[in-house]
Amino acid sequence: MSRPTIREALIALEVTGLVRSRHGSGIYVVDNPPADTSPTGLDIGAFELTEARRLFEGETAALAALSITDDELARLETLIGDMERENQQNVVGEHADREFHLVLARATANSAIVGVVESLWDARYSSPLCAHMLERARRAGVQPRTEEHLVILAALRERDPAAARSAMRDHLARVIDGLLEATETDTIERARAEVEVKRSELARRVAV
Fold first, then answer.
1. pLDDT tens track for 8-29
2. What does the CA dihedral 74, 77, 79, 81 come to, rounded to 10 degrees?
3. What's the distance, CA 55 to chain centroid?
4. Contact between 42 and 16 (Cβ < 8 Å)
5. pLDDT tens digits, residue range 137-148?
6. Cβ(102)–Cβ(159) under 8 Å?
């Protein structure tokens, strides 16, 4: 199985209270799990969702390249600037990033496509598992990548469907890589914190 699949499964078990991560030791089954461990709402993780976005939004970008207007291109450029400001201010919610992808979807002039892209973005917040993983990523410093959105914008300006598809798919592939790295970093940092606690405790005992 792939690392993202295993990572999502472990985080889902942790969110439902069935396992507990012990710093510097590993992951253990909880002796007395909560009575309600229903997986409802936990079936969509950040890796799975971003993979779906990569497939669907790649084609969305390709179609948008054929029909996007100058006003929509100007709006996308403005939103990239908004993204940069949100990153600097550490704004939670990725409002500009979401709107960038929705403006691009609207540029296809296909309401069904707009609905799907919107639902994929909404799932980021409605799924507890996905929201939990994204919060971990934010704590690790993951933010919307403005330079990758600029590449998408450049392809759209050229009215080049193949380049727009490639730019969007590359962007979302890097999002997946960033999520994987962030959750790995989170695990490493927790282990380091546990080592520091043990080191301090040992120093106190040695000083007696």
1. 566 666 656 676 666 556 677 7
2. -140
3. 15
4. yes
5. 777 677 788 999
6. no
Tell me which residue of 53, 66, 55, 71 sits closest to 161, measured CA to CA.
Answer: 66
Q: How many angstroms separate the CA atoms of 30 and 9, rounded? A: 15
C-alpha angle 134/127/132, rounded to 5°? 30
Q: At what angle do helices 161-207 and 3-15 cross, to 10 degrees?
A: 60
Distance in angstroms (rounded) separating the CA atoms of residues 179 and 174: 9
Q: Are 187 and 137 in contact (CB under 8 A)?
A: no
Structure tokens at 103: 């403006």
Type of residue numbered 64: A
Query: Whole-prediction pTM value?
Result: 0.69
Q: Which two tokens stand for residue 101?
A: 């992808």
CA dist 82 and 28 (Å) reads 43
